[in-house]
Amino acid sequence: MRILASNTKKFMIFLSLLALLTNVSTTATQKTHHFKPKKYYYTYDAKHEPVLNLKPGDILVTTTVDAFGNKISRSDQLASEIIHLPKVNDQTGPFYVEGAEPGDTLVLHLLKVRPNRDYAVSTHLPNFGVLTGETYTAMLNKPLPEKTFIWKLSLEKNVGILDLPNSKIGKVEIPLHPFLGTVGVAPNFGEAVISLTPAEHGGNMDCVETKEGATLYFPVFAEGGLFMLGDGHAAQGDGEICGTGLECPLEVTVKVDVIKGKSINWPRFEDDEYIMVAGSTRPVIDAFRSAQVELINWLVEDYGFERWDALQLISQVGVTRIGNVVDPKYTVVAKFPKRYLPVH
Amino acid sequence: MRILASNTKKFMIFLSLLALLTNVSTTATQKTHHFKPKKYYYTYDAKHEPVLNLKPGDILVTTTVDAFGNKISRSDQLASEIIHLPKVNDQTGPFYVEGAEPGDTLVLHLLKVRPNRDYAVSTHLPNFGVLTGETYTAMLNKPLPEKTFIWKLSLEKNVGILDLPNSKIGKVEIPLHPFLGTVGVAPNFGEAVISLTPAEHGGNMDCVETKEGATLYFPVFAEGGLFMLGDGHAAQGDGEICGTGLECPLEVTVKVDVIKGKSINWPRFEDDEYIMVAGSTRPVIDAFRSAQVELINWLVEDYGFERWDALQLISQVGVTRIGNVVDPKYTVVAKFPKRYLPVH
Amino acid sequence: MRILASNTKKFMIFLSLLALLTNVSTTATQKTHHFKPKKYYYTYDAKHEPVLNLKPGDILVTTTVDAFGNKISRSDQLASEIIHLPKVNDQTGPFYVEGAEPGDTLVLHLLKVRPNRDYAVSTHLPNFGVLTGETYTAMLNKPLPEKTFIWKLSLEKNVGILDLPNSKIGKVEIPLHPFLGTVGVAPNFGEAVISLTPAEHGGNMDCVETKEGATLYFPVFAEGGLFMLGDGHAAQGDGEICGTGLECPLEVTVKVDVIKGKSINWPRFEDDEYIMVAGSTRPVIDAFRSAQVELINWLVEDYGFERWDALQLISQVGVTRIGNVVDPKYTVVAKFPKRYLPVH
Amino acid sequence: MRILASNTKKFMIFLSLLALLTNVSTTATQKTHHFKPKKYYYTYDAKHEPVLNLKPGDILVTTTVDAFGNKISRSDQLASEIIHLPKVNDQTGPFYVEGAEPGDTLVLHLLKVRPNRDYAVSTHLPNFGVLTGETYTAMLNKPLPEKTFIWKLSLEKNVGILDLPNSKIGKVEIPLHPFLGTVGVAPNFGEAVISLTPAEHGGNMDCVETKEGATLYFPVFAEGGLFMLGDGHAAQGDGEICGTGLECPLEVTVKVDVIKGKSINWPRFEDDEYIMVAGSTRPVIDAFRSAQVELINWLVEDYGFERWDALQLISQVGVTRIGNVVDPKYTVVAKFPKRYLPVH
Prior knowledge:
The structure is a homotetramer.
Chain A (H helix, E strand, L loop, with lengths): L1 H25 L5 E3 L8 E3 L6 E3 L4 E6 L14 H4 L8 E7 L7 E11 L3 E6 L22 E8 L4 E6 L5 E6 L3 E6 L7 E3 L3 E2 L2 E2 L11 E5 L5 E9 L16 E10 L8 E3 L3 E8 L2 H20 L3 H11 L1 E6 L5 E8 L7
Parallel strand pairs in A: 1-4, 3-5
Antiparallel strand pairs in A: 2-12, 4-17, 5-16, 6-15, 6-17, 7-8, 8-9, 9-10, 11-14, 11-16, 13-14, 15-18, 18-19, 19-21, 20-21
Helix pairs in contact in A: 3-4
């Protein structure tokens, strides 16, 4: 099953690359930019100076550091002594995309999203995570014990390995599925949002769907869109229960595009199997509702579904995944299988 | 992908049947009971008279009617004129299992869960579903339009077909994955719970996981366990968004068992890929927490995981599915992949 | 302020008694019943045998034990060793009211609600309360320390006194405002509900509003209504944060009545200042919505408010109180000041 | 009751003014600033240029416009055609307070908060409010009808009057209790927050407690604190159910102060009767928890309560009010009666 999916993905990436090559011949101005970040941001904010200008069709090759600014490498290091919430999720960018104006949609084709380090870090931070009292679900209980886990990454085998000497199993080896924990654009209405929080502009959605091969759509709220990215995860379970995934730096290649005059309310994703919407708010049920309603609107407006047919169909074949339930806003991804879309 | 999964499932059922055959030779008292329901219940209640006594190891062959008591067969029939919420989900049972006492665990091996009708019904009921005001999320808005959809079922092709003349796609054909929307035991502390509500005793969890090939574990709260089942769905999306799946009657074969002295807090499921817990309450986040904490306890108590190792691992490889967000309590299923369990 | 309110209350009770005397002269059959409970119930259930038959207009004089069955009297007693959740809130009743049929409204005039003991008990139970992980908001944190507080009650001074030797203040003295923590009727649709849970039938609402001088209205779901009462609190703050109030036994006098053919969805209360609705569910926002929508419907149906006028007015003069956020369902009370009602 | 309260308030304001006069003689540098706003802000943002510098002890006399920028004055004007959510709640400020640094507490004594117009506006906006689908509680239902209500204000009689010709009552007259719907400081960590959203920095809390006579405490996150104010309400019910109060411009007099080295997590208020904390987040239960935990910490740190004594006492005498359940975050105010505080 996984082999098939993986092959399909490879084939899709191949097609994307082919498309790019094809474009190159027709678009004389297309350009590949190699950007090496010198500083990182902790807020999504239209007031930040863009680090680079891109044109629609351009390709960006860059890197991200991990959620802890690459400062943790040993299990005896405590994150609470090294980083200070919410100053985490150091972001690469912002990147200005020419022609992207409020009311448009910014398109990011994720051509490459790969760890570039042989370990990943996961932490249990005090008062962070969904199974303990935390900043907003404030409790009088004492925090859980703080822990730092160092996962070995084998990039050629595409696995992560964790020693668990205190557990009967001794150690586990899991497949990697690297993705951008955080990706988005400058927020609406002059707001500035910390890189720990997801919202309409994207940001810290912690969705496994924002991975190599996916296409991401964001509402443009500020001139140039001003997208940023970071918080790489080599793997993560649904909901990011303890508050962190396999945190690692990434190599990222993105092709940018703009859909003029196309206005959307929430980040939308697309891969070979699904069209998707990521809704972010608290409580979970409202993130769920936000995502589903936007998905139904998408089906009605772009794919010719009658409204109540769309509701019926999404009720029977819709897939929903909980992205995170640990950030200041939670993220739910509503997915509709592409095979039930009419041929365009 | 689906073919592989389907084959695995078939092989597992074959193994189960083999196990049964083997058991038969060794367990002289094992018995297969054919039960044809004459009346149905709308509450889970230890005060109901059991319809049949079973012994651990026995096999029950029976049927269920659909959530509407099989009373709807045409798209011009309005459910609101035919059924009266919450008098839906007619239950077959209760079945008394000898030796099952409070503090034990009742085991149901679902050997067969198959639709026995060539159509299924899905409705959009007024003030029901998650994308509209409903009984508890009370709103002042007018209800959505009521609708009845009749899905044709082809049991040999294992698909459901719906005509959508008002939508560009015209019609859809989806694979079936039949399951029991409602299954559980008599509740705790003398409570009686309508068959529309899921809780610690199971009930209307609306989980696609309670399907052919799965093994279900329920806490025993009353002598004999007193399990019931009904509300068959030929298919359903995550969350059961409009409030109904592909509602249909089922043929069900169950092998029952009892684990003496094993006490659990929430229904647990098991298939070839996962061990799972179904937590049911409102809001979603608390159903999520209930399921995850029970799953961590399971990993610690039965599989030798150190507590914080279990939290770390579940955070990285845990799968979570939203069962329903439309019933009086919502259901979330927390899943842990069996391949990360130590060999027993 | 409080003196004025208290006087108003006394006057209202005087009026009630006057009304009763007046009724006596016209209703030859009115009767006062003295009932001394011999057993108590832990569920609201239409299947319980009524302990007494009352006629509309009759007066019931009875007593309740405290939430712990009067078993705790010293601060060195731990509730977790003496009682077993949810077997608390021992209920007096059920009382059958002749002529009360499903679809009617049962009326309880609370003529007297007074503690009959010189101390009250409040406990901090492990995994109970809103500022700690609990049964449904399941957490991995260790529970808070268990505590038992014994409040001295001075009934003639109407105060409760608690020694706090570990706090700078040393001791506090607070005014009492005794009320029934739990009061309600047999639930709908054959459900049985533990006396720890509030819902449409009333039950464990833990509302300070259900006190001497108030009139309570309950939907009748079963023949005779079958009301019960218990869980006296001598005082309690909003939300019952730690999970218990000043738990004490009560002397209760109730005049019963029936409004034939009047159907309501949630318990309604009335005192000299407000008409009120108590909505109970999780999460809080849905208890809030349930109560407000029912209150708006009440204003529209009984008091001639246009629907959107009622919404506007409730938005500007509505008072909302959080009853409890610790029971399996939370209770919110929506209140509309009587002085903005048209004269009947 | 209200007369007494009102007198107490007047006396307290008299005392405040007396204190100011006294201060004047001793504090040669104290100054009264009259500020007439020329522009308004729609975000709380440390990057905004301050409009005025104040010293601790200084008094600010200024005005605010209403939530709609004073653009609505007739009931036939539709807000949806005049304003554009979230561009509402025009803020006066920001004001820089010398010596206020991150980690300090900014103090605002509200000496005067009075409407300066003879009418107030309340609207029912489409998809706004708690009893209808809205931005985050996204629904498929059609919005409620849009409405504009013009309340006549009589400032000498301190009442608001609304004609309700479609309702039996015909018209209502309610007492005014004017307050700042929005007041706060620049947010933490470089965030910028629209003036529709409350959070740790204050902002759009919509709390009736931020009224004349109250003292407000805010955590200082940016140099100078940079407080702003606006969104005057002449009156409002609990929760601001329809989404708006009696919106009106205000005359405001504030005395500012700084508590050096005092760090708080949430806005705190104080009046003659209560010490209070305003917690803002979704869902309600977490706003509730945030406020209560901060209030318990306050009792422990400043008033010498043992932790579990504080929990017990807050459970029995604590008052909780729902500020708003309509903004992007909800606000809950936890109150502790001052009469149970030890004498300092």
